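Entry 12.
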Amino acid sequence: MQPATYILASKTDGVLYVGVTSNLLQRVWQHKENLVVGFSQKYNIHLLVHFEIHDSMEQAILREKQIKNWNRQWKIDLITQSNPDWQDLYSSLL
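Predicted 3D structure (tokens):
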């Protein structure tokens, strides 16, 4: 188990999705394969543009809630600080 928060995007400056998981590689793969029914599937959100690893699931959930409460520009700023070109980070997990 490796708790993580993550942000997916439909494209650069596109629709954003914030999530939490105990298995980032598996969860992002599920999003990419449209196995996660709901928002990310509906809006074709498949690019992993930001993630953070946490020591506990409680920390990951708190961070997810914090980011979800942010306005859009703060989320964009968070992404561009570590990933200015909005590259899909999924391959870096493999």
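Annotation: The helical segments are 24-32, 39-42, 57-68, 72-82, 90-93. Residues 19 and 54 are 13 Å apart (CA to CA).
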